[in-house]
Amino acid sequence: MVTIKDIANSAGVSIATVSRVLNFDEKLNVTDITKQRIFQVAEELNYVKKNDKNIKKSTFKVAIANWYTEKEEVLDPYYLSIRLAVEKKCASENIEVVKLSPLFNIGLKEVDGIIAIGKFGIRELEKLKTVSENIVFVDSSPQSDVYDSVVCDLKYATINILNYLEKLGHKNIGFISGIEYINDGKDIFVDRRERTYKEEMRLRGIDYKTNLYIGKFTPQSGYELMKKALEDKNGITAYIVANDSMAIGAYRAISEASLRIPEDISVISYNDNITSQFIVPPLTTVKIYMEFMGETAVELIIEQLKEEREIPKKVVIPTKIIKRGSCSQIKTNS
Fold first, then answer.
1. Which of 2, 31, 199, 234 sits at 20 to 30 Å (Cα–Cα) from 47?
2. 105: pLDDT strictly greater than 60
């Protein structure tokens, strides 16, 4: 397992700096470039490279359209992990990589294909098509009848979380998440985690409306939303948090309220970023196979370019709950 010391040595910073960056310490006075380097080193050390000796090399040129800016990647390393996996896989396949800006307004010539990482709507799709018709989407699937995509099964993941918490005796379960926009910020992207939570709570006959807290997918928003939830005193014993970065903020709010995880409140999240194993207690989270998603996207674009395949593919990657120390059996009065 990768340690904080390993990351510090490779990044050329102190162990304390790595610890504070991985815990999203806002009081730490280091540049975003240093933060990104630490996250990138952490992901690279945690990355297990497959044996690609038998794969025929190619000489394509592929553009990466990254929905997140580099600053946003630092706050939520999910897309950073996917991007790094795409870049590594492209390097192993001798594919030249160029980058599109988040606004996709860079006029690129002679690009064979695009790997679009993030949430995209029809408006963004129309812009991407001006660069290349060969597109693979990662983490969203606009026009799945036309374009390849790689997504993870968040519906099944959320059902698994609820079943897991129920086995631990939790019934009053809160949900902390964020809002994302597509189509030039005009439309709300429907979040499968939130939708499934609502559907499953309705099926269980539980009124979820006062247990739902929505903000942004950042550590600060996770902190503010959890603080508000605790102030509401709704008797919630377990919280589902939409990503690990928000969960770290939620941890801070719980600690400031002099409550303990998991003795007083259980917390479970999504992604299994490198940060989740280093916080205290280690975070129970749904593992999203981000590296595999990135690698699969590259394989799909190669397949498109080599075979000129006409039928699109939508690859759905499974998930797995990684049980650590942030969830426990609910206390019962005997």
1. 31
2. no
Tell me the pLDDT band of 52, cut-offs 50, 70 and 90. Answer: very low
Task: Collect all residues with Cβ–Cβ distance below 8 Å to 137 and sequence separation of at least 6.
Answer: 116, 120, 147, 148, 149, 150
Instruction: Name 100's bridge partners.
Output: 65
Cβ atoms of 37 and 86 within 8 Å: the answer is no
Q: Please answer whether residues 247 and 221 qualify as being in contact, where contact means their C-beta atoms are separated by less than 8 angstroms.
A: no
Question: What are the percentages of helix, strand and coil residues in the chain, rounded to 5?
Answer: 40, 20, 40
Structure tokens at 177: 């998440």
Q: How much is the mean pLDDT over the chain?
A: 88
Provide CB contacts within 8 A for 258, sequence distance 6+. none
* 267 phi and psi angles, rounded to 5 deg: -135, 130
Q: Write the DSSP assignment of 245-269 as a string of letters.
A: HHHHHHHHHHHHTT--TTTT-EEEE
| Residue 111 pLDDT greater than 70, yes or no | yes
Give the containing element (helix H, strand E) for 163.
helix 154-167
Residues paired with residue 181 on neighbouring β-strands, in sequence order: 188
Q: Where do we find the tokens 């075979």?
A: 307
Phi, psi of 87, deg, nearest 5? -65, -40
pTM above 0.90, yes or no: no
CA nearest to 11, candidates 40, 32, 47: 40
E strand or H helix that includes residue 116: strand 113-117
What is the rounded CA–CA span in Å between residue 2 and residue 15?
Answer: 13
In this prediction, residue 108 has a pLDDT band, given cuts at 50, 70 and 90, of low
pLDDT at 104: 54
- Phi then psi for residue 258, to 5 deg, are 60, 35
Asked whether 286 and 333 are in contact (CB, 8 A), the reply is: no
